[in-house]
Design brief:
Blueprint lengths: L1 H21 L8 E5 L3 E5 L8 E6 L3 E8 L2 E6 L2 E6 L3 E2 L15 E7 L6 E9 L5 E10 L5 E2 L11 E2 L1 E10 L10 E3 L4 E4 L10 E3 H4 L6 E3 L7 E5 L14 E4 L8 E3 L1 H10 L7 E6 L7
Parallel strand pairs: 8-21, 11-12, 13-14, 19-20
Antiparallel strand pairs: 1-4, 1-7, 2-3, 4-5, 5-6, 8-9, 9-10, 13-18, 13-21, 15-16, 15-17, 18-19
């Protein structure tokens, strides 16, 4: 009787352990992870022998629904496939930045190198635990010839400056859309002085009150500036280092500003909160580690 019972117990143990050994390890449902490789292959199955169905770029967010050993089942956009989880992390691209310890809102503008006008725009906000939480991820545009370091910035150079900057005055051609930041409504008399030889260089002025004090100035009452904000670049107003650097509405390259759709601009304006010390960082993505 004892031998029969032991045999039944052993048989049941083998069946049970065999069942659990075949069952895949499940990840928590819909875990967000971020790509750490420059380019990550997404395959039709959990292994390198499976066909590549798409690729995802560094820092892109994916949704993980299942894990099998070193492979995660991910969804990116409308595509679902498998990727090696050694190139995925739960830390987003804002985590680990060294220069934003006193900031609670962050706008990241990144590009794949210096010489492209296409950019990714992401916003983040710190939660009560001090962690950066992604708010918005979208596409946008920078200068026609891409990014430039401060050394290489020139008036009229059509490049956007890299660096970390505070957020200046928000503006628009209509009433305040709901931002908590200081807001200025543009009039037909408003200009931004871009004359490097003028003492008013890189400042917002009234044409009628300052004409004669500058030789050139940019009209502020244009469609691109329907809504936007000043990026506080060259606040020391060093001649020829660039002026009128804004975050504004646009659907293509700029002359040195950063642009995205009107919907995105308005949503960001509404989101910005001066009590959270918001900043914007602009950089080629492979130099993000500097910040």
């Amino acid at each position: 009787m004892f031998k029969k019972g032991l045999a039944i117990f052993v048989a049941m143990f083998v069946l049970c352990t065999g069942f659990f050994a075949l069952k895949p390890v499940q990840a928590a449902t819909n875990v967000t992870k971020y790509v750490t490789a420059t380019t990550l292959n997404v395959r039709s199955g959990p292994g390198t022998t499976y066909k590549i169905i798409t690729t995802v770029k560094k820092y892109q967010a994916v949704t993980v629904s299942e894990t099998r050993g070193t492979w995660d089942k991910i969804t990116v956009g409308s595509t679902t496939g498998w990727a090696s989880n050694q190139y995925l992390t739960t830390k987003n691209m804002a985590e680990g930045l060294k220069t934003v310890g006193t900031n609670k809102q962050l706008i990241l503008v990144t590009a794949n190198g210096y010489n492209t006008s296409s950019a990714e725009i992401r916003t983040f906000e710190r939660n009560s635990l001090g962690k950066w939480v992604p708010v918005l991820t979208t596409t946008g545009y920078i200068g026609k010839y891409g990014f430039a370091t401060y050394t290489n910035m020139r008036e009229g150079g059509k490049r956007s400056p890299i660096g970390k900057y505070s957020i200046g005055t928000t503006f628009g051609r209509y009433a305040n859309p709901g931002t908590k930041m200081p807001y200025r409504k543009i009039t037909s008399d408003d200009v931004w002085v871009d004359d490097p030889t003028s003492k008013l260089y890189n400042t917002w002025q009234s044409r009628s009150k300052t004409q004669g004090q500058w030789n050139s100035a940019e009209n502020m009452n244009i469609a691109a500036y329907t809504y936007g904000f000043v990026i506080n670049y060259n606040t020391q107003r060093t001649p020829y280092k660039g002026s009128a650097i804004f975050f504004h509405i646009g659907s293509g390259y700029t002359l040195g500003c950063t642009a995205t759709s009107q919907t995105n601009v308005v949503n960001i304006l509404k989101w910005l909160d001066p009590t959270k010390n918001p900043v914007i960082i602009q950089t080629p993505i492979d130099e993000l580690y500097k910040y």
